[in-house]
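User: Show me a protein chain along with its predicted structure.
Assistant: Here is one chain, sequence first, then structure tokens.
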Amino acid sequence: KEIKDPDQSKPDDWVDEKKIPDPEDKKPDGYDDIAEEIPDPDATKPDDWDDEDDGEWEPPMIDNPDYKGEWKPKMIDNPDYKGPWKHPMIANPEYAYDD
């Protein structure tokens, strides 16, 4: 009965993003200096470890509790967001009512 209007298309300036990065949000100083993993402070060198045969002992790495992942700015509502674009519909000129 209806089809999308072929003469209409989404405007070039239509904004689809509901949320945008907050331009006021800044990465904290030193954020990138926090290591993802740190040496396990509770690990001890095994008694049978031989530096000459086994190489210098290094403690195993564990997840750093202070690491918060890659920094991303907080997201805010986009003031230019107009909602989802809906294609205007028109009567289908090829539609024929079937008895």
